[in-house]
Amino acid sequence: MIPYSRQLIEEDDIEAVVSVLKSDYLTQGPAIKAFEDALAAYTG
User: Fold this and answer.
1) Helix, strand or coil for residue 24?
2) 27 near 21, Cβ under 8 Å?
């Protein structure tokens, strides 16, 4: 396989994913709300 890019995944990214996986919410909850709010603010 020919690599086309290197992924930049830092320790805080991994910790955020693990935190959500260990929480009571996987598909809905505070992390989703925070993401949606940040995306809305970014896109206007």
Assistant:
1) coil
2) no
Alpha carbons within 13 angstroms on the beta-carbon side of residue 39 total: 6
Given a contact cutoff of 8 angstroms between Cβ atoms, the answer to whether 22 and 29 are in contact is no
Nearest by Cα to 20 from 29, 12, 11: 29
φ, ψ for residue 38, nearest 5 deg: -65, -40
Q: pLDDT by residue (tens digit) across 1-44?
A: 787 888 899 999 999 999 999 999 888 899 999 999 999 999 99
Q: Report yes or no: 25 and 32 within 8 Å, Cβ to Cβ.
A: yes
pTM of the complete model = 0.64
Which residues, 6 or more positions from 17, have their beta carbon under 8 angstroms from its beta carbon?
none
